[in-house]
Amino acid sequence: MKTNNDVEKSIGVYKESSMIITLFMVAAKGARSFLNCAKAEDAKEKGNECMKKNKPIEAMLHYTQALKIDPNNPTYYSNRSLAFLKVEQYYFALIDAEEVIRRMPHWVKGYFRKGEVQMATEHYEEAIQSYKKGLEMDPDDAALQNALSKAIDLNKKQKSKERRLPWLGGIFGLITSLMLIAADESVATNKAILESDIAKLIVIITISIAAAGLGYTYRMFLQKERCSLFEPPTDLFGDENIPDNGEKKTS
């Protein structure tokens, strides 16, 4: 028959064994986590080397591998955003930049990455806002300051150019109509087609308005073309490849 001392010893041995097993499991988990982090960092470094060699597609694959191992690391999203930008995959570049901001809102790199994508697609107003938000986090960041200055300058030029398009169209229409009237008068043997001043005025107004309308339409086309750069690409392989909540699914 076991005495109280034997029972207490058994309980003590059980507790010690449980503690050892727990410590071993924690250590094993920590070692596994450390190895995973090392693998992710190795994949990231390989991606960085590819970027230095101007191989953004290969770099993108390495960064994606790093994200499979450590999907919560904002640096990997930031690096992959740049790789996507290099191959003009603006939709995915923007998603990764926004994912950086979501995971680390006080890190200026996310706002810089987002601004760079917006600059590449000529969304200068949006880029200005991104750079300003980044400067709220770090007012002394020289890269953001320079980028903001450039975005402001390009935004002014873009707006000025687009404002002029309908006017330039109207002027072109006016010149064209005057040339038509002059040609009509010069080639007419007996009587010009546009003999009355009212007819000439109608032609001038009609062509000028039509040309101004074309200028306005072209301006709308340019704006729509810029917006289309952020549309998701056609999915050729099924829903499993569509990004979900900012994370890219790969097969």
TrEMBL record:
Keywords from the UniProt entry: Cytoplasm, Membrane, Repeat, TPR repeat, Transmembrane, Transmembrane helix
Gene3D superfamilies: Tetratricopeptide repeat domain
Any Pfam family matching the protein: TPR_1
Superkingdom to which the source organism belongs: Eukaryota
Keyword field contains Lipid metabolism: no
Membrane-spanning parts: 165-183, 198-218
One GO term describing the cellular component: cytoplasm
SUPFAM superfamilies: TPR-like
Subcellular localization(s) per the UniProt record: Cytoplasm
GO molecular function terms attached to this record: Hsp90 protein binding
Annotated TPR repeat ranges: 108-141
SMART domains (alphabetical): TPR
This protein's name: Uncharacterized protein
Protein source organism: Paralvinella palmiformis
